[in-house]
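Support reply, case 0932

Customer input (verbatim):
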Amino acid sequence: MTEGEPRGGASQGAGAVAGCEDDGVSTARRPGAAGRPRALLRSLVRISAAVMGTVALLAAGASIWAWTVSAGHIETAGERPGDGEASRAPVAIVLGAAVDADGQPSPWLAHRLDTAAELYTSGRVEAILVSGDNRRAGYDEPTVMRRYLLSQGIPDQAIAVDYAGFDTYDTCVRARRIFGIERALLVTQDFHEPRAVAICRAVGVDVDGVGDSRAHSDRIGWTVSWVRERAAAIKAVVDVVSRRDPTLGRQETSVKEAVAWTREHRR
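Our regenerated output:
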């Protein structure tokens, strides 16, 4: 038994040495293990930076396209030249925007409608097409827009309604293919005009934009919307290049009828 003890002790000593060696190996590996999360984080940062850079380049390119196509075709409401030089068209197209919970147009939408009403009463257009979102139960931009114009003294017979203007591209395509519009004044906020005008002109509608600038008073809202426009320009290019079909349906004659009614009653 006594002879066995040294062997046991030696074994324990060897085990201790082995344990130390194992600990040494483990200790040697720990820095590498700790470095892996940092390496992964650096990779994620590089990938994120690459993605953000790519998106920024695409947004810049799409925005340049919109600004180039719309150049010379946009005016700011209230800052146009004399009536003899101001652009005219048979119809004003008003792009939809948010409607408040009480069924009234949001301030920005009301500004658009006020601009369209002024275009009609000044004789620069002979009809107004209101185009907006009506895809959800209880939410109806076009009807709210029409009611607001009526409250501003615009004749019901001079207003046409597009219930499937779900976005700017849809409105422009439907204006050409469903309502037969070839020439129009396009009404929205000024920061939105380059993209909107570029889309409409790209799908075959000869438009000039009349942009409302009162949104500038809402600095936060205007800034957020301006940034959003940069991303939305990418979608605009994709829509135009892909020639995506919006919700279509039967041909509408309401715009032509509204123009004819105004021409008859303005004599």
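We compared this against your earlier run and they match. Two observations from our side: The mean pLDDT is 86. The first strand starts at residue 74 and ends at 76. Please reopen the case if you see a mismatch on your end.
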